[in-house]
Give the backbone structure.
Amino acid sequence: MAEKVIPIRINEGKGLLPSIPRDLIQANAITKDRRGRNLRDLRISVTDRCNFRCTYCMPKEVFDQNYPYLSHKELLSFEEINRLSSIFATLGIEKIRLTGGEPLLRKNLEVLVEMLANIRTPSGNKLDLTLTTNGSILRKKALALKNAGLHRITVSLDGLNNETFKKMNDVDFPVDDVLDGIAAAQEANFTDIKVNMVVKKDTNGHEILAMAKYFKGTNIVLRFIEFMDVGSSNGWEMAQVLPSKEVIARIHKVFPLEAMNANYPGEVAQRWRYVDGSGEIGVISSVTQTFCHDCTRARISTDGQMYLCLFANEGFDFKTLLRSNKTDLEIANAIMATWAGRDDHYSEVRGSNTTNPNCSNRKVEMSYIGG
């Protein structure tokens, strides 16, 4: 059973107040962190609530009826998210991913998507707008999201066998309803759909081949994610991690694969294609094959804290800046200064953190900042 954990935002209070340099400079896209990494991707959590209780993310022993979710006034408004995103766009952001919790639980999310679709980069390009969802209510929202300007959708699906899937989501939700949500996205003319499967060795590892067979030839890219030690409540154990190389080996034995090049620098998934030309799959290996060295992602929590790593234990309170009389230029300089001080590389030092009994740093929960 997962240990009862009070969320880090309650224990720690607000994040650090970002520092605004005394001498402001023009917003630019050349700021690098302490490891030479640029800022290119932004993930925004729009709600800390979810209708699933996946054991690796929001185990029900912790996220029960007494869990202190954020109140409405604590959330960033759509207008605040849009303003902050517009500022980030001046700093080199090219892609925004909306996450949660379950983002489609945020009322009228398509209104926010339409606002973000109007943002332009300094070169005049649109942002790449994408969303990660558990697919449970995608049937109701897919067309509205497409019409609002959403480009891509990623659906989390941890198995095709109903018993296995229900064991993973832990709320008795049927797999057919998620598959119907994926079908709705296709009907709405989304042409870039991905499916993410978190693999726990002894829970759904046996579903790997079935998932590969189901999505092979559909133009949907299936990606397998190693079970990660995100947050402090999911009971992570290295023994439950199935290395991506074994996932690839299992599939290759039945459906021959060959490696592909990355789509862009910093892409987290390693790409593989079927030799017979029937599509591709990906693996995300943050445990066994770290990619900290070219991570270009920042994360904004549901209440406006900026986190510099999925495994961070402290954020920076940009909501306070947004709700003060600070100018866009001041906030842009605060973002640049925060990014310039970034040295996060948790996955590269994971071993010393997870095996040292004296290491007590709590990590922020994934449902608070998105995956």
Observations:
- Residues 175-187 form the longest helix (13 residues).
- The first strand starts at residue 41 and ends at 45.
- Confidence is low (pLDDT under 50) at residues 1-8, 352-360.
